[in-house]
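Colleagues,

For the teaching module next term, I've prepared a clean inverse folding example: a structure given as tokens, and then the sequence designed for it. I'd like students to try predicting residues themselves before seeing the answer, so please don't circulate the second half yet.
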């Protein structure tokens, strides 16, 4: 990590139902939980805002 904004995939857990799924760190559209539909990621014109628990970074 040298301050570069590198796009990655994040493993997140839905705060409502506990479902775990992968999301793109620079998503350009809203990502919702595949199980309950809760909004997990909001696009912010760059790095997306993660609205739920981040478990880790993948790749
Ligand atoms: Zn959910």
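(Answer key — instructors only)
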């Amino acid at each position: 990590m040298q301050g570069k904004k590198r796009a990655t995939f994040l493993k997140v857990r839905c705060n409502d139902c506990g479902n775990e799924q992968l999301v793109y760190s620079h998503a350009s559209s809203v990502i919702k939980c595949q199980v309950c539909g809760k909004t997990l990621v909001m696009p912010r014109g760059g790095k997306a805002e993660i609205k739920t628990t981040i478990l880790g970074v993948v790749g």
